[in-house]
Amino acid sequence: MEVPTRNVEITSSFWAQLRDSGRLKTIPALVKAQKESGHWDCLKWKEGHQPQPHPFWDSDVYKATEAACYFLMTHADEEMMRNVEEAVDNIRGAQHPDGYINSYYTVRGIEKRWTNLRDMHELYCIGHLIEACVAYETLTGSGRLLEPVMKVVQHIDSIFGSEPGKRRGYPGHQEIEIGLLRLYEMTKDPLLLQVAQYFILERGTRDEKDEIYFDKEAWARGNDPGDWLSFEFRPTYRMPRDYGYHRRCD
C-alpha cells in the first residue's frame, strides 16, 4: 500500500541531505533558471515577447510545480508556495475554452494542434500537467488545478478514441497514461481510466493497410512516415517484457 508523503519521515542522514538539497537548492535554482530563460512564462506569452515557446516548455513548468508540491507537503516555504500558485494561475489562464492547453501551438498556430502526435509531445506535456495536478491537489485540496485538468482530459476524450468520428491517435512519448491513472486513483473518475486504457491498448495497432496512426498523420503532413524510430510496430502489451527502452534526444 502506498504511504502518503506527509506520513513519511526520513531519518537517514544520507537521504535527508539529498532531500534538503533538492528543497533548498535544486527547486529554487530550477524555477529561477526557468524564469530567466522564458520557460516559466510560456503559458502567458504575449505578442512581441521573446523567446517564443518551445514545444516542450510547458512540461518544464509542470515538472517543477509537481516537485515543489511534494516538498511543500512536509516543509512550509512561502516563496516556493507563491511560485506554485503562480504556475497554477498561468495554467488556468492559458486554457482554451474547449479545454486545450499548449503554449507552443497557442502561439505558433492553433490550427496545427493535434497534427503531429509522434513528434510534438502535446499529450506528453499534458501528462506532466496531470501529475502536477495530483501533487497540487494532494497538497491543497483546493480544486484549482483539478478543474482545468479535468477539462483538458474531457477535450482529449472528445478528439481521440475508438468511437466513430474520433481520431485513433496516441502519444509519441508515453507519459499521459501514468498521469491519468494516478489521478484516477485520487478521484475515481471513470473517464480518466477510460482514456488511459484507450491510449495503452491503441498504441501500435495497425489498420487494413498495415499502417499505424503515426504513418497516417505523417502522410497527411506530407512527410515520409518511415524516416523515424519508434516502438510502435506492435501494441505495447504484446511486447516481450525485456524488449528494451530507448530515449529520444530531440
TrEMBL record:
Residues 7-209 form the Non-reducing end beta-L-arabinofuranosidase-like GH127 catalytic domain. Pfam families: Beta-AFase-like_GH127_cat. Signal peptide: none annotated. One of its GO terms (biological process) is carbohydrate metabolic process. InterPro entries: 6-hairpin_glycosidase_sf, Beta-AFase-like, Beta-AFase-like_GH127_cat. Transmembrane segments: none annotated. This is Duf1680 domain protein. It comes from Colletotrichum fructicola (strain Nara gc5) (Anthracnose fungus). The lineage of its organism: Eukaryota, Fungi, Dikarya, Ascomycota, Pezizomycotina.
